[in-house]
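#random but structural
TW: two for the price of one
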Amino acid sequence: MNVQDIVNTVSQKAGLDQATTEKVVGTILSVMEHEADGTTISSFFAKIPGADDLAHQYDVMAAAPASGGGFLSSLQGALGGVLGEKAGALVNGLAALKASGLDMAQIQQAGTVLIQQAETAAGPGLTNQVLGSVPSLKSQLGLG
């Protein structure tokens, strides 16, 4: 199972269009990449061909395009700076997902299906190891 298979399944089960689903999956994978232990996430991505490319495409720590700034982007920048890369990755990821027009229920539904598909592709042990090193993501996705 490659990342495109996962995107297709998440799209179907969460009722999202392909482009939105790709962004959701890529963003969540990017948060995982920035927050999880390096060796664990490398092993995880090795089991899901294309996952690392999709995570890089939707890199939550890349410079955000100018959106006029405003309070939310100031807050994101401040939180990312104060809390460090790991917390900043989650804050940026959630902001990116909400900016795409999704509500938390849709994000959680897509995230749940993504994790189920990741368990099938990479195995439940490795998937749980990655999620265990990113507890804040688990709680945001309503998984723990």
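TW: number two ↓
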Amino acid sequence: MHEPRDPDPGTEQQAGVVGPVPGSDGEVGYRGVTACHAVGISYRQLDYWARTGLVVPSVRDASGSGTSRLYSFRDLVVLKVVKRLLDAGVSLQNIRRAIEALRSRGVEDLAGITLISDGTSVYECRSPEEVVDLLQGGQGVFGIAIGGAFKEIQGSLSHLPAEPVGGPPAVADAPESVGDELAARRARRRAG
């Protein structure tokens, strides 16, 4: 018979957590069930994403029957991002392509990336000025800051004339009965 062994000093084994106590010098791993609860996904999704390489646990992958995967906190962040993209309507195929594009560029720490989605495509926000469409081969896209456009228009209008809305209509160069340039041409043709 086997004798139970004491865990290593500084190591705690709780439901879902295996590894050093948080705050100690070692790393903490989260079992699949705990990861599912933290992220809000099913165990079937988690298993499929790990087997297909979408989000592979970085602490310990399953290495046969009886072993369990251990996910790091950063892995859980990536899992949550994948779930949010799915909830936003992005297909799993497009999410996979976006993550593969990031990894092919050498981005190992996916948790440090800011992703934006319109429900169809996935964009990486590299800086406030640069957004890249990950599904179109890294093609740059641009955003329009409405607040910036608002201020720009305000600045432009400060040098241009305005007229009161409730006042009488302004007198144009055309005859009084004519409202626009086309009507003025027609009136000239008829007169002459």
